[in-house]
Design a protein that fits this description.
With about 300 residues, this protein is of the alpha/beta class. The chain has 12 helices and 7 strands. The protein has helices spanning about 30-50, 65-80, 100-115, 125-130, 130-135, 140-145, 150-165, 180-190, 220-230, 245-260, 265-275, 300-305; strands at about 20-25, 30, 60, 85-95, 120-125, 170-175, 210. The structure holds zinc ion (2 copies). One zinc ion binds next to helix 12.
Length: about 300
């Protein structure tokens, strides 16, 4: 990232500091201070624009130990002062992926301790009675033809919901970035599910709403923010990460946005016009009552076929 900035370029915002970041889509060259300021301002603007938080919310940040979630915790801790009645905590899930999870959990503990944010932990073993490694080693899993990630994702979301509920949270903040949100809209498009539910926006119902304060923040800016703040994070890729539909979309969008900067923002605006934005509706699972776009949610489907 540093290499994209011409030597001795000066910040376009303060006209004083040395530029360290080039924001391709806006043409801005930013110094460290202005990058951090505009990054944090954008998060505050996102929270305000979509009304993601209420003044007296108890916010549970879902942290995995990756750069996105630890950066989110860091930013929210910093801007928490603007919400004096709000509370902040962190929730994390140990999926039980042998040789992978331990390192991430160490970073989660280190950062939450440093920021003085209470941490609530849970695990697949505790919630579902089996670790992910046990589930993927089972005969039922092999017969199902599913990829590990498509089992892990829904179960992790459910475990986070349970941990957040136990901690008394009123909202869950996830670290999904602009890139993730646009990928998800495309995924829903290709599955015929666009418009069935919103992504990262506050929907009220008999469950804890999930919001994404990085909705308008590109992934690469989160990476740079984590780097500037020396936030330790796990860079090792999950051993289960498969060549899924999402990965195809991710590669396509990354290439497209590099060639045509600003495309991700434009795609988001388009999806927001066609999706359910503003409609406060959310279907719930007929079996467990958790949010679902179908009659029976994915978690109930998975636990019935793979675990029970
Ligand atoms: Zn500056
Ligand atoms: Zn269900």
């Amino acid at each position: 990232m540093l290499s994209t900035v011409e030597r001795e370029a000066v910040c376009n915002v303060c006209h004083d500091g040395k530029a360290v970041y080039y924001r391709v889509y806006s043409g801005e060259r930013l110094c460290r201070t202005c990058f951090v300021k505009t990054f944090e301002k954008r998060v505050i603007r996102t929270i305000g624009r979509y009304k993601l938080f209420k003044p007296d919310d108890k916010i549970a940040v879902a942290v995995s130990g990756g750069k996105d979630s630890l950066s989110l915790l860091y930013v929210l801790k910093k801007i928490e002062k603007r919400f004096p009645r709000a509370g902040l905590l962190a929730v994390t899930v140990d999926e039980g992926i042998e040789g992978y999870r331990d390192e991430a959990l160490e970073y989660v503990e280190e950062v939450t301790r440093m920021l003085e944010v209470p941490l609530y932990k849970t695990s697949f073993e505790e919630v579902f009675g089996k670790t992910l490694s046990e589930i993927v080693a089972s005969r039922q899993f092999r017969l199902s033809g599913l990829a590990a990630c498509s089992v892990c994702g829904p179960l992790r979301r459910r475990a986070i919901n349970i941990a957040a509920k136990r901690a008394g949270a009123t909202v869950i903040a996830t670290a999904h970035t602009l890139d993730d949100v646009v990928q998800t809209y495309f995924l829903k498009t290709f599955r015929g599910e666009l418009g069935t539910s919103e992504i990262g926006l506050r929907l009220e119902g008999p469950f804890i709403p999930r919001v994404a304060p990085f909705r308008l923040t590109p992934e690469r800016e989160v990476v740079f923010y984590a780097y500037l703040h020396n936030i330790p994070f796990q860079s090792q890729v999950c051993p289960n990460a498969a060549d899924s539909m999402r990965n195809m979309i991710r590669r396509f969008l990354a290439e497209f946005d590099e060639r045509y900067p600003g495309s991700l923002f434009a795609a988001l605006r388009s999806f927001e016009k066609t999706a359910t934005l503003g409609k406060k509706i959310q279907m719930v699972c007929s079996s467990c009552g958790e949010p679902s776009s179908r009659e029976l949610c994915r978690v109930c489907e998975l636990t019935q076929t793979l675990i029970h």
